[in-house]
Amino acid sequence: MPTKNDILTLKITDITPDGLGVGKTDGGYVLFVAGTAPGDVIEAHVMKAEKSYGYAKAEKIITPAECRVDADCPVFPRCGGCLYRHIRYENELGIKKSWVLENFRRIGGFDISDIEIFSAGSPDGYRNKAQYPAGTDKDGNIRFGFYSKHTHRVAPCRACALQPKFYADIVGAAEDFLNKYKISPYDDATGNGLVRHLYIRNGVGSGEVMVALVINGDVLPHSDEFVAAVRGAADGVVSVMLIINKERSNVILTDNVITLWGKDGIADTLCGLRFEISPLSFYQVNHDGAELLYGIAKKYAAVEKSDVLLDLYCGTGTIGLSMAREAKEVIGVEIIPAAVRNARENAKNNGISNAKFICADAGKAADELSDGGVSPDVVIIDPPRRGCGADVYGAIEKMRPEKIVMVSCNSATAARDARAFADIGYTIESLCAVDMFPRTGHVECVVLMTRK
Ligand code: SAH
User: Fold this and answer.
1) pLDDT at 81 > cutoff 90
2) Which residues contact 446 (CB under 8 A, 6 or more apart)?
3) What residues are paired with 258 via a beta bridge?
């Protein structure tokens, strides 16, 4: 077993969802090494040695992996947003696919030889939302950027590769305006300073853009000029807002929103439906990725006109609503009241009258629905990372739907939940992975299970 400060040659064979390269010593001891790629041969400096695994630093890359590329970002890996920028995107897809497969084999106990992984187009420029904290550069100018990993220091960065290119123009215009009037950035440590964050969102389907400045005060000096500056920086700006946040906490947004110019938010279209998006409402950050994911869920669900569809963990209703026109009835269940209100508005705005939404815990609501005699034909389950858990299994067992379509951002808990459904008589018909968040450690999976 290696000990601290040992230097050894190590071949990296894998990478974790946290972006740590994994290598095994000749003795089978596992070392995790940041910044490495599967295939790298490195000179590893052991920094910490636990009983069965340890952490090392790559002092030198002796032979670079074939999948290695030069990271094309000045703040990678400091910012912590991207984990795989040093790996060719095709290889990233392969890595993510193998996590999903491996979890379904190891945790779920399913014998699946291969699955498909779908990419939502370009791995760059896909995010339709950004919140840039304000800081200062070495010359004392106000700059927007990202927090360096595990710190509250702002690394200035106008052009994040995950955001559309025009976001950089808006960031630049906002910085120029603030520097012209010497308006100060907020300082976490003292609670002084005015500007906390610049917040941008855009509707990929609509072309609409909103820009908001989050401030630690009630007024922005020369706000008319700010409006003119950001409107002039990009096409499609329809809303410029201030968000007042005088709390000393890490929470970025508040509901104290002042519209300086234009609308109170933006609209967008997703899966043929129209959504109104306020600064506070939840909305998928990868528009094309969401359409791809929901499209697969829809194909798996193959809803018919006589079908009752139960959409558990429905958020703002997007998945169920995207299938409502094909179904007899959609029942959505979601625990956050604001999301349920959004879901109801979304249904109304799209003229959908066969969808209703219940604000409750998914397991409890499903149980009560089944006690009330509701027996859905298709159940959609899109739970948070921890998965759905035992009370949902019980309700499904009572309701006996023909199909379960599980959408999950955590294939480990999805595999566990799928095993529980297999144990009550369901088999996996289809399974695939969808890379909604290229360059990050996240991947979605979709499972179709049918009753035997
Ligand atoms: N299907 C939606 C949202 C999925 S995210 C979409 O695609 O946009 C998971 C959702 O589950 C969140 O909206 C979260 O608020 C909700 N949630 C978390 N725990 C819950 C519970 N116990 N019961 C019901 N909903 C819950």
Assistant:
1) no
2) 293, 296, 297, 300, 405, 406, 407, 408, 430, 431, 432, 433, 434
3) 242
**Residue pLDDT, tens place only, 124-137:** 999 999 999 999 99
Burial class of residue 418 in the structure, from the number of CB atoms within 10 Å of its CB (0-12 exposed, 13-18 middle, 19+ buried):
buried
Ligand 1 pocket member 62 (CB < 6 A): no
Any ligand 1 atom below 6 A from CB of 434? no
Query: How far is it, in rounded angstroms, from Cα 425 to Cα 446?
Result: 19
Mutate to test the pocket of ligand 1, among 270, 313, 392 (most ligand atoms within 8 A of CB): 313
Q: What is the mean pLDDT of residues 290-295?
A: 97
Upper half-sphere CA count for residue 64 (Cβ side, 13 Å): 9
* CA distances to 77, 167, 193, 226, 233 from 181, in Å: 33, 22, 13, 11, 18
As to burial, measured by CB atoms within 10 angstroms (0-12 exposed, 13-18 middle, 19+ buried), residue 265 is: buried
In angstroms, the Cα distances linking 49 to 37, 46, 52, 54, 371 are: 21, 7, 8, 4, 54
333 pocket-lining for ligand 1 (C-beta < 6 Å): yes
Q: What is the pLDDT of residues 32-53, one digit of tens each?
A: 999 999 999 999 999 999 999 9
CA distance to 55, 176, 194, 213, 278, per residue, from 240 (Å)? 47, 17, 17, 8, 12
- Asked if residues 123 and 71 have their Cβ atoms less than 8 Å apart, the reply is no
| Total-model pTM | 0.92
Query: Which amino acid residue places its CA nearest to atom 21 of ligand 1?
Result: 361
Burial class (CB in 10 A: 0-12, 13-18, 19+), 428: buried
In whole angstroms, what is the distance from residue 223 CA to residue 332 CA?
42
Cβ(200) to ligand 1 under 6 A?
no
What integer best gives the mean pLDDT of the chain? 96
Strand partners, 31: 23, 54
The residue contributing the CA closest to ligand 1 atom 8 is 315
